[in-house]
Amino acid sequence: MTIVGRNATPFQVIELFEHTASSVNGEIRLTDALDESPERQGLNAEEIDAHIFDGGNKQGSLSANLAVGMRDPETKSAIKI
């Protein structure tokens, strides 16, 4: 499961952050807290077909910017790969 874009998070899930272990890179992930939530039946989701980039690291941020730049005719010609 991936959280993309904006979301409204029930306060019960926010409270779970206190008991959710951090990942290898030290992040506390919303998806982990949701997975541990006893209130899971109250969640809504929508399946999408999209490219997802991790903006939390240099490679993901660069990849996202290049992907957007390659779709824009004005910037596409300036990108040399």
Write up this protein.
There is one protein chain. With 81 residues, the protein is mostly helical. It folds into two domains: 1-50, no CATH class; 52-81, no CATH class. The protein is built from four helices and no strands. The model has no long low-confidence stretch (mean pLDDT 78).
The amount of beta strand, in percent, is: under 5%
**Number of structural units classed as domains:** 2
Question: What is the number of helical segments per DSSP (H or I, 4+ residues)?
Answer: 4
Distance between the termini: 32 Å
Order of helices and strands: HHHH
Briefly summarize what is shown.
The protein is mainly alpha-helical and 81 residues long. 38% of the residues lie in helices and 0% in strands. The chain folds into two domains: 1-50, no CATH class; 52-81, no CATH class.
